[in-house]
Amino acid sequence: MGCNVALITADPAAIGRMSCNPAIGGSAKGHLVHEIDALGGVMGQLADATGIQFRLLNRSKGPAIWSSRCQSDSVAYARAAADLVAREPGLLVVAADAIDFVPDPGAPVGRLILADGQELACRRLVVCSGTFLNGVLHTGEAAQPGGRVGERPATGLSTAFERLGIVTGRLKTGTPPRLRATSVDFAELAEQPGDAEPLPFSHRTDRSRFPLLRQVSCHITHTNATTHLELERGFDRSPMFTGKIQAPGPRYCPSIEDKIVRFPDRTGHQLFLEPEGLDSELIYLNGFSSSLPAEVQSAALRTIPGLRDAEVVRFGYAVEYDYFPAYQLDLTLESKELRGLYFAGQVNGTSGYEEAAAQGLLAGINAARAVRGEQEFVLGRDQAYIGVLIDDLVTKPSHEPYRIFTSLAEHRLILRQDNASRRLAQHGVRMGLLDADRGQQVAAEQLAIDTLLSALETTRVTPAAANSWLQSLGTSPLQAAETLATLARRPEVGLQGLNRMQELPLAIKDLMATTPDATLAAGAIELKYQGYVRRESAAMARMQRLEGMRIPPATDYESLAALSNEAREKLARLRPRTLGQAARMAGVSPADVSVLMVWLRGRGRAPVAVN
Ligand SMILES: Cc1cc2nc3c(=O)[nH]c(=O)nc-3n(C[C@H](O)[C@H](O)[C@H](O)COP(=O)(O)OP(=O)(O)OC[C@H]3O[C@@H](n4cnc5c(N)ncnc54)[C@H](O)[C@@H]3O)c2cc1C
C-alpha cells in the first residue's frame, strides 16, 4: 500500500515457516484464502506455486461450501514467502527480538524497544507474535521455553502490554510427530490422491502452467484399541492430564489423548500421512497431535498399520503461550485501549495460518489507512468470512483457540469461494492492493452474469416448445409457460443443458455461446442461489441498518437503567462499536437492543455507514 514498513522478526530465516501442518485451506479456511486473494493478499499465490496436492473438499454438498485445500511443500512455501518479502519495495526486515513498548501520545504511537537496545518509533504497530509470547513447549513431563520447536520464546512484550492495561490470557495448541518417509510401509495404507483436475486458489495463477510442482498422494491409516491402550499407559505423565498445562486447547482439533478420553466408545481414529515436501523425507501424521512422553508416542505408533517400523524424526509436542483476548479490539483490529496498536493472528486467540493471514491483511490495511488519515476498512458478516471471523473474535469472547467454520457464517450461501472476487475485488482496488485492470475484469464478469441471468428471467418458453425435450431428459413437462431461469434451475436441465434445447431462442443461444465457460459456471451457481439471496436481502438490509448505527465509545451504560444487568456489564466490558455488534453479543437480548436503539435515536445521531 506504499507505506514504509519494518518487519521485526526474531529469525528472518523462519519467514513463511509452517509451524504445524504442511497444508493451506480446508473447510472454510479455503474460503478465507480465496477472499485474501480477492483483496490482493498473497497466500493463494504462494499456495498455488508450492502445492503438491490440490483437492476441492465437500464436493458432494452444495457449491456454497466447496472448499479448496492443498498439501504444500513446506520448504518451497517458506522460500517463496521469503522471496516475496525480499522483493517488496518499502519492506525492511529487521532481525531482532522486540521486548518492550513505550506509548507516545504524539504523532508516533510509541517506541518499540528491541533486545539489542535499538528503539523504533512507529506511527502504527501491528503485533502478530503467534505462539511465541512466553511460549512453553511440553512433551510428557519435560517442559522448556520455546515459541515453536527449535525457536526461543519472546519475553517482555506481554508484560509491557499488561502494564499498559491490556488483558492477557493463556492458550495451548499442539502438533503431531513427524515420521521418516522411508520407514513407513505405504503398501499397507489406503492412498488418497489429489483431484484429477486441480483448481488454483489465486486469480493471478497462470492456469496453463498449473500445478507447477509434481503432484503426490497422501495416505490414510487408523489407530486401534491396542494403540489406545499404549497411549493410556502414559496418561499419568501427560502434561494435559497432570495439570501442567492449564491453558485450554482447540476443541475441534484435539490431541489423540483428548480424543481417547472424549470418545471412549471409538475403537479407532483416522490418521492422514501427509508429505512435508517433494524433497523432504518427513511425513506429518495428521490426527495424532500429542504431548505424551516420547516413548509413549513411539510405542503407540508401532501398533498402527503401516507404522510398525516408523522412525520418529520429531515427536509431537504442545505449546502454551500468551494471547490478548480480542474483545479488547475494534473491528479494524486496533486496540481500544492503546490507539495505533493493532493485533493480528494467533495472538488474538485464533488458530490456523488462514485465520492469521486474514487478520494480518485487515490489520495491515487499517494501519496503513490510519497513517494516511483515510477511513477505516471493515468487512461485514454478509460480505466475507473475514468479516465473520473478526466480528466473532471481537464480539463473542471465546476461551479456546478460535477457528473458522462454514457453520459460523449465517449468510454462507452468499459467501462462496466462486464469488470471492466479485464480492471483494473492488475493495482490493480501492485499497491499492489490486490494479484497476483487475477491477475492470471482475466488473465485466459480473455484468456478463447479470446480463445472462436477466435474459433467462425474462424469456419464457411454452410447453409446446419444451415438453418433448423435457421428456427426453426424464423430467416433468411444463403445464404452462415458464422462464428459462426456472427451467435451468431444474437439476436435470442445468444452465449448460439449456443449450441442447432445439427451440432455444437464438438471442439466448448467441449469448451463451459468447459467454466464457468460467462465467457460465459462475452464472449457474448464482442462478441456483438467486431465490435464497432475494429472500435473505430483507434480513441483510435489517442487519446493515443495525451495523450503520454507531455506539459512541464513551457510552455510559450504567446510566441506561432499562438495560438488563447482564447486558450492562457485558456492553461496558466489550464496548461494541455498532448496534449490530451489540445485538450479536451473548447476554444482550432483543429487549436490550431496543433500549439501545431508542437511546441512540434520542441522541439524534444519524445512522453512519461503517463501510
Ligand atoms: C506447535 C504448534 C501447533 C500448531 N497446530 C496447529 C493446528 O493444528 N492447526 C492450526 O490451524 N494451526 C496450528 N498452529 C498454529 C499456526 O501455526 C498458527 O495459527 C499460525 O502460524 C499463526 O500465525 P501468526 O502469524 O499469528 O504467528 P506465527 O506463525 O507463530 O509467527 C510469529 C512470528 O513472530 C515472531 N515473533 C514473535 N514474538 C516476537 C518478538 N517479540 N520479537 C520478534 N519476533 C517475534 C516469531 O519469531 C514468528 O516468526 C500450530 C502452531 C504451533 C506452534
Q: What percentage of amino acids are in beta strands?
A: 15-25%
Distinct helical segment count:
19
Bound molecules: flavin-adenine dinucleotide
Strands of the widest sheet, in order across it, are: 14-15-16-17-13-18
Q: Could you describe the largest sheet, including whether it forms a barrel?
A: 6 strands, antiparallel
Radius of gyration equals 26 Å
Helix content: 25-40%
Mean pLDDT: 93
Written account of the structure:
With 611 residues, this protein is an alpha+beta fold. It is 35% helix and 16% strand. It contains 19 helices and 22 strands. It is globular, with a radius of gyration of 26 Å. Mean pLDDT is 93; it is low at 606-611. Residues 8-11, 14, 19-20, 97-98, 128-132, 147-148, 154, 157, 173-175, 253, 319, 345-346, 351-353, 356 line the site of flavin-adenine dinucleotide.
Walk me through the topology.
Layout (H helix, E strand, L loop, with lengths): L4 E5 L13 E3 L3 H11 L3 H8 E7 L9 E6 L1 H14 L3 E5 L2 E6 L6 E5 L4 E4 L2 E3 L8 E4 L2 E4 L11 H7 L5 E7 L2 E3 L9 E3 L25 E5 L2 H8 L23 H7 L7 E6 L6 E5 L7 H8 L10 E3 L2 E7 L17 E3 L9 H19 L13 H11 L24 H11 L5 H23 L1 E2 L1 H10 L9 E2 H6 L4 H4 L8 H9 L2 H32 L16 H10 L4 H5 L6 H13 L9
Parallel strand pairs: 1-5, 9-20
Antiparallel strand pairs: 2-4, 3-4, 6-7, 7-8, 10-11, 10-19, 12-19, 13-17, 13-18, 14-15, 15-16, 16-17, 21-22
